[in-house]
Backbone:
């Protein structure tokens, strides 16, 4: 009997523990409370759950905003500036977009992947910033207000026209880089063709190689062919986009050899040698021109400013008064002569053989 009684007591204690554990989540509703008090506690619990959900929702919103900010910051500054300008000046931007002709083609040739309206917005933003900047510079140099406004207006116009012709400058620079790398790309293709590789595979090999802009353009040619364009159409688009005499020669020779037959490998080798020889001859002429321009550059950037200052001082001594205000003299020395130097450097750079 003692053993049965002990076993029965053990089962009772085990059952009590089980009931206690099962009722543990309801300990926040203590026994002995009235129904209204229990409902109040339930409402408080529901309120706490809703507050927790609101906190989680706020955290998710904050994470979304942070991710969006990261994406915005990762965009180039030019795109963000264009979007902001388009947002606040949509009317003027749309009118300018409709009035500017040929900008689409210039952007395409320069491989600037920006819609026309956004680029026009960027043009307007650069124009405003350059105008304001030059106005402040002139005003801080104690120029009269009307002169400062005129300088600011000229700066705005200069910024606008610079951005208008910037795609053309980029296109010409890309064409120059293509022409510079053309002999190496042609030798690459000729070597593959002589080894029995097809012309399409040779173009793909150059596209995957590191030849700069010409690799990018050949990659576009390959993409056109993959999207359904014929070999002739893809090369013709490349020729029209570049607008280069050397590129046109290469495209015509390739299409003629593919259409009528011929040893394309030897043709490409010959073209590469011709382009290399032409570049060497242009380089010799360029060195001769630079030797002549160097003396003019030294005179305009070193001798002429010194003579100008000496002349102003001599005239002021003879007239016993300043013949030119100090602010104007500072503006000439800080802007005019450096501008002349930049123009000469730009001319020398443009004359460099491509």
Residues:
């Amino acid at each position: 009997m003692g053993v049965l009684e002990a076993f029965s007591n053990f089962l009772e204690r085990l059952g009590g523990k089980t009931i206690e554990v099962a009722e543990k989540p309801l300990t926040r509703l203590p026994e002995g409370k009235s129904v209204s008090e229990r409902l109040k506690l339930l409402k408080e619990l529901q309120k706490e759950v809703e507050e927790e959900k609101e906190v989680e929702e706020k955290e998710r919103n904050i994470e979304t905003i942070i991710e969006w900010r990261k994406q915005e910051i990762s965009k180039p500054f030019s795109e963000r500036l264009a979007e902001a300008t388009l947002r606040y000046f949509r009317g003027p931007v749309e009118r300018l977009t409709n009035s500017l002709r040929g900008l689409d083609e210039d952007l395409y040739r320069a491989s600037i992947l920006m819609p026309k309206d956004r680029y026009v917005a960027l043009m307007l933003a650069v124009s405003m910033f350059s105008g304001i900047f030059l106005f402040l510079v002139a005003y801080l140099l104690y120029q009269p207000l009307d002169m400062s406004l005129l300088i600011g207006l000229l700066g705005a116009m200069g910024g606008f026209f610079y951005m208008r012709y910037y795609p053309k400058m980029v296109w010409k620079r890309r064409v120059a880089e293509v022409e510079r790398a053309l002999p190496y790309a042609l030798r690459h293709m000729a070597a593959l063709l002589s080894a029995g590789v097809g012309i399409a595979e040779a173009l793909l090999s150059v596209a995957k190689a590191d030849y700069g802009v010409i690799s990018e353009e050949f990659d576009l040619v390959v993409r056109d062919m993959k999207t359904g364009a014929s070999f002739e159409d893809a090369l013709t688009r490349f020729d029209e986009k570049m607008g280069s005499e050397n590129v046109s020669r290469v495209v015509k020779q390739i299409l003629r050899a593919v259409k009528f037959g011929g040893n394309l490998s030897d043709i490409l080798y010959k073209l590469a040698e011709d382009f290399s020889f032409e570049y060497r001859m242009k380089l010799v002429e360029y060195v001769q021109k630079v030797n002549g321009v160097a003396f003019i550059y030294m005179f305009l950037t070193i001798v002429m400013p010194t003579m100008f200052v000496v002349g102003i001082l001599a005239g002021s001594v003879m007239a016993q008064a300043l013949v030119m205000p100090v602010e104007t003299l500072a503006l000439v020395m800080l802007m005019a002569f450096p501008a002349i130097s930049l123009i000469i450097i730009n001319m020398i750079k443009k004359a460099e053989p491509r």
Remarks:
- The two ends are 113 Å apart (CA to CA).
- Confidence is low (pLDDT under 50) at residues 21-29.
- The first helix runs from residue 2 to 22.
- Residues 2-72 form one domain.
